[in-house]
Amino acid sequence: MAGELLRVRAGIDIFAVHYAGNAPSNTAMMRGDVAFTFETMTTGLAAIRAGQFRALAVTRAARAAALPDVPTMAEAGVPDSVTDVFFAVIGPAGMPRAAVERSSAALQRGLRAPGVEERFRDTLGLEIAFTSPEETRRIIASEIDRWAEIVRISGARAD
C-alpha cells in the first residue's frame, strides 16, 4: 500500500511486485530483481547500517532518530505520503476500564525503564510514543479511513 500511495502522490507509473513478507522482498532487492522496496525500520535498519540497502527517504512525518540524515518523503519531493507504522497493545472488547488503566500503566513503566527507549530506537529504529486508549482508537479509525481512500483512488485490489 505504501507503493500505491507513492504512485498516487508522486503521479508516477510503477508496477507493484507483492512478496510474502520482508525476507523475500529483501532478497529480491539484493539480487536486483526490483528497483526499490518499502521496508520497516525494525527489519531494514540493520541492512541499511551494513550497507546492503541505501535509505532514500523515510515515510514518517519527521526524520527518524535512527537515520537522521535520511530525508522524509515530503523533503524528497513527495508530500502527503506518510505511512508511519505503529504498534498498539490491544485487549478484548469489553475489557474493564480498571484493567485497561493498570495494563497501560505497567506497559509505560516497562518502556520507560532505563535504557529501554534508547535500545528500541538504536537497535530497531522505533520511537516510543504513548497515547490514551481513546487516542489509540482515534488513530486506528483515522488510518482505516485514510487507507480506504488510497485503495479507492489507486484502484488497488486484493488478488
UniProtKB/TrEMBL annotation:
Membrane-spanning ranges: none
Protein name in the entry: ABC transporter substrate-binding protein
Per the UniProt entry, what species is this protein from, by scientific name? Teichococcus rhizosphaerae
Query: Which family would the database say this protein is a member of?
Result: Belongs to the UPF0065 (bug) family.
Pfam families per record: TctC
Per its UniProt record, what InterPro entries does this chain match?
A: BUG (IPR005064), Bug_dom1 (IPR042100)
